[in-house]
Amino acid sequence: MRIDLSDKMQEALNKQIAEEGYASNFYLALAYWCDNKALEGCKRFFLRQSEEERMHMLKLYEYLSVSDVHPITPGFNQPPADFKSIQEVFSKVLDQERSVTASIHSILKLAKDENDFNTQQFLQWYVDEQREEEAVIRTILDRIRIIGEGGQSLYYIDKEVEKVNTGIINSESTEA
Ligand code: FEO
């Protein structure tokens, strides 16, 4: 089924491709910052996030493609390369996800203004996904705060993030 998208909507969805692509690269950068600090649990978490963001991007390619719109492949923007602490890393991650959520919400508003019901339905998946992602990051930040910044804190933070990895994997394997 061909979906008619306004010029404004085409532009907004193409811009979202760039947002999701940036998020994927951002998480890749974080994964190898963690690798450098021997934080294996955090590295695995961010590699997985990077793959998920790429999948978010590819879903947009497909949606534009079935709408007979040529998706624009974005260039690479340089993500930050260095951070003061793992606390700062997760705090920047929450900022990043909030920014993506705001972007999705603004496209959803445009879809509503334009009575574009197909795009509204398509974006609902992203709304749910963003809510879940933000909740996971807030949980990690809460655990980081509880652990504090003592000598062995990095070890315990990494263990907590590994627990989140396992939880995510378990919830997916029960859905399969
Ligand atoms: Fe797809 Fe978490 O932004």
Report on the structure:
- By secondary structure, this protein is mostly helical.
- It has one domain (7-175): Ferritin, core subunit, four-helix bundle (Ferritin).
- The chain contains 5 helices and no strands.
- The protein has helices spanning 7-36, 40-66, 86-113, 117-147, 153-175.
- The two termini are 28 Å apart.
- 30% of the residues are buried.
- MU-OXO-diiron binds at residues 20, 23, 53, 56, 97, 100, 133.
- MU-OXO-diiron binds next to α1, α2 and α3.
Topology:
Blueprint: H1 7-36, H2 40-66, H3 86-113, H4 117-147, H5 153-175
Helix pairs in contact: 1-2, 1-3, 2-5, 3-4, 4-5
The structure holds MU-OXO-diiron (FEO).
Order of helices and strands: HHHHH
What percentage of residues falls in helices of 4 or more residues? over 70%
Low-pLDDT runs of 5+ residues are: 171-176
CATH superfamily annotation: Ferritin, core subunit, four-helix bundle
User: From the alpha-carbon coordinates, what is the Rg to the nearest angstrom?
Assistant: 18 Å
Shape designation:
elongated
Report the sheet-strand fraction: under 5%
Structure summary, number of beta strands: 0
CATH class wording: Mainly Alpha
Which whole number gives the mean pLDDT? 93
- How large is the count of helical segments? 5
CATH topology: Ferritin
Termini separation comes to 28 Å
- Describe the oligomeric state of these chains in a short phrase: single chain
Name the hetero compounds present. MU-OXO-diiron
* Largest beta-sheet details: none
CATH architecture: Up-down Bundle
Counting structural domains, the number is 1
